[in-house]
Known about the structure:
With 194 residues, this protein is α+β, with helices and mostly antiparallel strands. It is built from four helices and ten strands, in the order βαβββαββαβαβββ.
Amino acid sequence: MQVTVTGRNVELTPALKDYLVDKLHRSQKHFDHSLMAIALLSVSKNPSVAQNQTAEVTIKLNGSVIRGEESTENMYASIDLVADKIERQLRKYKTRYFQKGIKTKGKNGSHSVDVDAQLDQDSEISKEIADEQFMPKIVRSKRFTLKPMAAEEASKQMDLLGHDFFMFINDETNQVNTVYHRRDSNYGLIEPED
Length: 194
């Protein structure tokens, strides 16, 4: 696995980098090809935030994005938690989308899993698949009109509605964007790549 590590308000010592890379290498065992990960280690300077040491990891995989973020009072603990989260997400991604034993729909329309085809997999993955009796599905659909506005105005609209995110047409770029609430009480903006 190739890992690019950056830091914000934290000194990236060789020991810290090596610890992160070693923890993330466990996730590589689920894939034959090398994965590329981008990691951001940051420390919040706000003294009122108790869990101020954050580890974020993003892996792009066949058009999907696997992302994890964990914050604790200790950077090594944050790395442990985010590495475990990434490994679970990668294992789930592989078992749901690449294993032959998974059927998309059963006779009655419900999702089912063929556990017998998983005998050659390790017992942990087989047990996880057996425990999941269905795959998630879209249970609600909603349509609304996208209005051109500035990102700041979209943030205000999101707060007025009490939502965690809000889609809109950016009046500067004329593209669909999304604003969302971040854990640090700020806002985030998601824009499409060109």
